[in-house]
Amino acid sequence: MRAxxxxxxxxxxxxxxxxFPKPDAAPNEILLEVHATAANxxxxxMIGGQHQFLPxxxxxxxxxxxxxVAEVGPAVKALxxxxxxxxxxxxxxxxxxxxxxxxxxxxxPDRMSFVDAAAMAMVYDTSWFAxxxxxxxxxxxxxxxxxATGGVGLAAIQLAKTMGAKVLAGVSSWDKADxxxxxxxDVVIDLARSxxxxxxxxxxxxxxxxxxANIILDPLGAEIFDAAIRALAWRGRLVVIGFAxxxxxxxxxxxxxxxxxxxxGLQISDYRKRMPGQMxxxxxxxxxxxxxxxxxxxxxxxxxxxxFATALADIRDRRTRGRIVLSQGKD
Length: 331
Prior knowledge:
It is a single chain. This protein has 11 helices and 15 strands. Helix 3 (123-134) crosses helix 4 (151-162), helix 3 packs across helix 10 and helix 6 (196-207) crosses helix 7. It is an alpha/beta fold. The protein folds into 2 domains: 2-122 and 276-327, Alpha-Beta Complex (Quinone Oxidoreductase, Chain A, domain 1), CATH 3.90.180.10; 138-266, Quinone Oxidoreductase, Chain A, domain 1 (Alpha-Beta Complex), CATH 3.90.180. The chain starts with a strand and ends with a strand. The strands form 3 sheets. Strands 3, 4, 5, 6, 7, 14 and 15 form a 7-stranded mixed β-sheet that branches. The longest helix has 16 residues, at 276-291.
């Protein structure tokens, strides 16, 4: 089958499009014919050998593909060939086929395209668990979303608004602020201002009547984390999602004590493996909100799978607006 192949860990430019063995479905698995898979920052980490979970070489990258069931193993009970699903595959999505356990597949709503499903995967489930589980969202909370114009950020803005939150959107590029506003942000916070260590808190306090944010979602890290933790309200909760800005920050625990605040982490792959029932509930809510017209994918660029390196390099170099979905050209 045609697939993106990583033979050695390194820059995305060293991966290649070629022929890779077509997988077979185990008794409890389905063989998915992939139609669309989003390009994500985590793919760069996997390809570069920097992710906490690394597959054996050679491998096909690509997480959470959307497609149609091609074959089913003899122990599969609920799915059949032709069913349209989103698969929680941790790799293999940049190939024509991938084998996935039936328990890790979720049927798509009839009106949801493969491209929309791929564009929403990874970012909406991450945001859902960050808000619902790690931050324990309560009605009336103010949520500050950092990296608000990225995939997780735009998804988090929309989900938080459906939950009734006041949403502050932290953006590093002011020319992308319209994306955050279009997603529903109430206030845009400028992360590019000088003296961010003090300025971020000042902006958040101005928007919250000097109370601070009840919840902060942080996919960035580095100096932005250092500034953001100071903008938490009393008993506020900050969820660490990633370190796209580079440096992995540290926490002075006395600060947690003095303000009665919490810092937690979210590694979404663990939920797929350890809590499939909660993951199913997550997607039931996400798909229901999509069907009701309350959420929608971020603006999406569709590229053929042959342009995988361009897509991932654009994400790495922060040239993207919205989401990039790689298509196998089967629609």
